[in-house]
Design a protein that fits this description.
- By secondary structure, this protein is of the alpha/beta class.
- It folds into two domains: 172 residues, Response regulator (Rossmann fold); 176 residues, Response regulator (Rossmann fold, 3-Layer(aba) Sandwich).
- The protein is 37% helix and 22% strand.
- It is built from twelve helices and 16 strands.
- The strands form three sheets. Strands 15-14-11-10-9-7-8-16 form an eight-stranded mixed β-sheet, sandwiched between helices. A six-stranded mixed β-sheet has the order 2-3-1-4-5-6, sandwiched between helices. Strands 12-13 form a two-stranded antiparallel ribbon.
- The chain is elongated.
């Protein structure tokens, strides 16, 4: 009788152990949602992110503790209307997380969907500040526009270029330009900078003309060596303004954000005098990135871009979290992600209870003589309240910030 009771007890304990400690799955699936066949440069950004993901997969041996990692690619061709259907397909296929999409507009389009699906989703490159507002399942890997604006102001300040006065050329109707200009202005006061002028050019009109150049240069009272122009623009427009300012004899610093980040920029600007600087997520010229750059070159026979590095970091964050999660499920991943501390090629990444890195490294690239070089790296947190900024309004030239025709 005692023997029978003992056997029954052992059987019960065995059953409990089987139900209480679920077996490891044979594979864990991660979806990658990118505009791989989109027109223009968007597909190139997508390809670079995907290359970074697969490089991370190869470096980790494609396994987490003996469990195979399977990447499921989905191409939405740059059409945000297709994203909800694609996400539902991935859910049915059993993915535990998604990497993507590329742009802020597309990330905003999926936020409500991934929240409702409780599907952890990591956008490598969506910089708009509001991408993560109200999020419960959408994280951002890159620095936000607020991070970039803060770093650009810090670059202009006493710990960087030591400027006294800055003028801004902003493009209305371009959300990236408007937000980055606002973020830069918001942090300028903490750096002791005076914004002497903000010129507004409407989206669709030429970004620069003779009057704009005269207005910008004429707004400074300090010697040009102590002045700077901030251009929150994409690289095509930035190159036109840089060329015009240098041809007009402007000798001060010209500063931009990650919208300048293109290997095409030096050729567009040419060998003009003076130095320009832009703040971005990654630079292959960064000495700390050499090992990653060499491995990427060996694998793809090309230099990695910021998108390549961010795609790599997005995968490695998921790999790190899943390696330590109690279960390789989307619930296990979500519970673990707040504890991840990962030293990535785009800087240290820690989320805590937030949906973006609280402090994120940004790289400053210098452009001079038609060449790009690593200049500085900043580790800053924009979650501190910026000091007020003094702006001197002037009426000539382009529309002024806050005028009835441009205020939004």
């Amino acid at each position: 009788m005692l023997k029978r009771i003992g056997l029954c007890t052992l059987g019960l304990l065995g059953a409990m152990s089987l139900t209480g400690c679920p077996q490891k799955p044979k594979e864990v699936k991660i979806g990658v949602v990118l505009p791989l066949s989109a027109s223009g440069e968007l597909s190139g950004y997508a390809r670079d992110i995907l290359n970074g993901v697969y490089m991370g997969l190869a470096e980790t041996g494609g396994k987490i503790g003996g469990v195979t990692v399977k990447i499921i690619e989905k191409d939405y061709a740059g059409d945000p209307a297709r994203l909800e259907g694609i996400l539902k397909e991935l859910e049915e296929e059993g993915v535990v997380a998604v990497i993507g999409p590329v742009s802020s507009t597309d990330a905003l389009a999926i936020k409500a969907t991934v929240n409702a699906m409780t599907l952890p989703t990591f956008t490598p490159s969506a910089t708009y500040n509001n991408v993560i507002e109200g999020s419960t399942y959408l994280w951002r890997v890159c620095a936000s526009n607020k991070h970039i604006g803060q770093a650009a102001a810090h670059l202009a300040g006493p710990e960087g270029l030591g400027l006294a006065e800055v003028a801004i050329l902003e493009q209305s109707g371009n959300p990236y330009s408007e937000e980055l200009a606002s973020n830069f202005s918001g942090f300028a006061g903490t750096e002791g900078l005076q914004i002497v002028k903000t010129v507004i050019r409407k989206s669709g009109e030429p970004i620069c003309d003779e009057n704009v150049v005269k207005d910008i240069i004429g707004s400074f009272k300090a010697p040009q060596e102590k002045t700077g122009v901030f251009l929150p623009l994409y690289y095509e427009d930035a190159s036109a303004v840089i060329t015009a300012l240098r041809k007009a004899g402007y000798k001060g610093a010209i500063i931009g954000g990650d919208g300048w980040d293109s290997r095409k920029l030096p050729a567009l600007v040419g060998n003009v005098p003076g130095a320009c600087y832009y703040v971005t997520h990654f630079s292959p010229e960064d000495p700390e990135a050499k090992a990653f750059v060499d491995k990427y070159n060996a694998r793809y026979s090309e230099e990695p871009s910021s998108f390549s590095a961010l795609g790599y970091d997005a995968f490695m964050i998921l790999y790190t979290a899943l390696s330590k999660a109690q279960s390789m499920t989307k619930e296990g991943l979500r519970d673990q992600i707040q504890f991840v501390s990962y030293k990535g090629v785009t800087g240290n990444i820690e989320f805590g209870k937030q949906y973006e890195p609280a402090a994120k490294a940004t790289v400053v690239v210098k452009m001079e003589g038609g060449k790009l070089s690593f200049f500085k790296k900043f580790l800053l947190s924009p979650y501190k309240s910026p000091a007020p900024v003094t702006e001197t309004p002037q009426a000539e030239g382009g529309s002024e910030k806050g005028s009835p025709e441009t205020h939004k």
